[in-house]
Write a structure and sequence with these properties.
Elements: H1 11-14, H2 34-37, E1 38-42, E2 45-50, E3 59-66, E4 77-83, E5 112-117, E6 124-130, E7 137-144, E8 151-156, E9 163-171, E10 175-183, E11 189-197, E12 200-201, E13 210-212, E14 216-221, E15 230-241, E16 245-252, E17 256-260, E18 270-275, E19 281-287, E20 294-302, E21 305-307, E22 314-317, E23 323-328, E24 336-342, E25 350-359, E26 362-369, E27 378-383, E28 388-394, E29 399-408, E30 411-413, E31 415-421, E32 425-429, E33 435-438, E34 441-450, E35 454-463, E36 466-473, E37 480-484
Antiparallel strand pairs: 1-37, 2-6, 3-5, 3-7, 4-6, 7-8, 9-15, 10-14, 10-16, 11-12, 11-13, 11-15, 16-17, 18-24, 19-23, 19-25, 20-21, 20-22, 20-24, 25-26, 27-34, 28-32, 28-35, 29-31, 29-34, 30-33, 35-36
């Protein structure tokens, strides 16, 4: 996804308009003295968009909002979530009804939750300012008890951007996949959607020049964009003008469903963190957008270290073609993360895995994309005292990590624990739980020292024998932004 860089001249004035941006690494993390070149300050404004949660009348959806406490912020701030297709007053101008916001975001450090149900719940557009903005996040979880896509689906509401990669989508057959495009701005956005299968790009004329009206949302059924059916697709969302939030809902007639979150930017080395240890099936899907084939070494970061799956030592990814391989029950009852590295020269790749838990007609599906590292700080929302697993991976050196459990949505006191993750391993850590917890709580993950850390959270729910679950990766929350500092005191120029 594209990134925004502030110029030295405009830095001070532009800081207040920064939307959802933050430092991806801590100052000095690259080995250079970046603290002299830039100051890291809290963002002053954030925008998030949440897709319409479900088309099922049996859907029950919970939203959780949380802003971590950030040093350097003022005392004032506010956040709000309004339905898309709204005129700013909260009254929907579309077909979907929204009599009131699903929740009113609270003060920093304490999560707030709200519920809705049915197929008419709208997409949401949220903004936060002041001390409510740095690291603000909203989690949307939906439970569907029967029908296509039954199970537990979860997605972090996304910051708007101009480019997204979704790996592991499908069109037709047992799958019903939608790309949800939500425009938070007051002018229209124009979007192209490119689809890539096992033989390369799929032809489509209706996928070009899709207009998303101001402050509105467009769910696009993938099977309407191309002849099908097609499995193991890579979806590239490219915004010609404006910006959108994008999310992909993957629904299966037999295996449940979940949201497929955007993958990390194309890179030579990728980490897919936190595959559940009881996974019965893991399918790796990869794509390289460049003009060169990629050859990847496939390894599993287990609790004991890096191991190579038998018979799946390497993966060859042809340029412009989506490649998929079944890894079976690769975790074999232990915590694990996939680490993909080039066997020779580095070629940019995007990747994700589809994970299945359960057996027979009691199976459920979730997706884990290749992730960005935690960076300075990451947050996980909607955690429960039971049914929550936090996976931490340190692929390139020992790392010390601090994890804070916030107060609960209905009461409790925050607690903090510190963990050491050995190089090349994945650990499902024993989570801290707030004292006197009532409701759900947020986890804030902050690396203290050592190499890069990747993280994911698995949330489970019992559903009539179906092992319902959803997994979210935990990238940096972009709560701070780098503002370049002048090399000299500019006041001398006024003498």
């Amino acid at each position: 996804m594209n990134r925004t860089t502030l110029s030295l001249i405009a830095a001070t004035g532009a800081l207040a308009a920064v939307t959802g941006l933050g430092a991806l690494t801590a100052p000095g993390a690259s080995g250079t003295d970046t603290a002299q070149a830039a100051a890291y300050l809290p963002v002053e404004r954030s925008t998030l968009v949440c897709p319409a949660p479900s088309t099922s009348d049996l859907a029950d959806t919970t939203y959780t909002s949380f802003t971590p406490v950030t040093k350097g912020t003022g005392e004032n701030g506010k956040a709000e979530l309004l339905p898309a297709d709204a005129d700013g007053s909260g009254k929907s101008s579309g077909k979907k009804k929204a009599s009131k916001p699903v929740l009113k975001p609270g003060e920093a450090g304490t999560p707030v939750s709200g519920d809705t149900s049915g197929a008419q719940a709208p997409a949401l557009i949220g903004t936060a300012e002041g001390n409510a903005a740095p690291g603000w996040g909203v989690l949307q979880t939906t439970e569907v008890t029967a029908g296509t896509g039954r199970g537990l689906a979860g997605v972090n509401c996304t910051a708007p951007d101009t480019e997204f990669w979704f790996v592991g989508a499908a069109a037709g057959g047992d799958r019903t996949d939608y790309v949800h495009l939500t425009n938070p701005d007051d002018s229209a956005a124009v979007v192209d959607i490119e689809l890539y299968g096992k033989d390369g790009a799929l032809e489509s004329t209706v996928a070009e020049g899709i207009t998303v009206k101001p402050r509105s949302t467009e769910p696009i059924l993938l099977s309407t964009l191309t002849d099908g059916p097609h499995s193991d697709l890579t979806v590239h969302v490219n915004v010609r003008s404006g910006r959108v939030g994008a999310a992909l809902l993957a629904l299966d007639d037999k295996l449940g469903g979940d949201w497929l979150a955007p993958a990390a930017d194309p890179a030579g080395t990728l980490v897919v963190p936190g595959i559940p240890k009881d996974a019965t099936s893991v399918r790796l899907v990869a794509f390289t957008p460049g003009g060169t084939d990629a050859d990847l070494k496939v390894r599993l970061a287990a609790p004991s270290g890096l191991i190579t799956p038998a018979g799946q030592e390497t993966l060859h990814v042809k340029s412009g073609m989506t490649t998929a391989v079944d890894l079976g029950d690769v975790t074999r009852g232990e915590a694990g993360s996939l680490v993909l590295t080039p066997t020779d020269r580095s070629v940019p790749v995007v990747a994700a895995v589809r994970v299945v838990r359960g057996k027979g007609d009691k199976q459920e599906t979730a997706f884990i994309p290749a992730a960005r590292p935690v960076g300075t700080r990451a947050n996980s929302l909607g955690n429960t005292a039971k049914g929550t697993t936090l996976s931490l991976t340190a692929p390139g050196g020992d790392a010390k990590v601090e994890v804070t459990a916030s107060a609960g949505t209905e009461g409790g006191t925050a607690v903090t624990e510190t963990y050491t993750i050995k190089s090349g391993t994945t650990q499902d850590v024993e989570l801290p739980v707030p004292d006197g917890l009532k409701g759900t709580y947020a986890l804030t993950v902050e690396p203290v020292s050592g190499g890069p850390v990747y993280a994911s959270r698995t949330l489970t729910a019992a559903q009539d024998g179906v092992p319902a679950f959803t997994v979210q990766t935990l990238p940096d929350d972009r709560g701070t932004v780098a503002v370049p500092q002048a090399e000299q005191d500019l006041s001398v120029l006024q003498q």
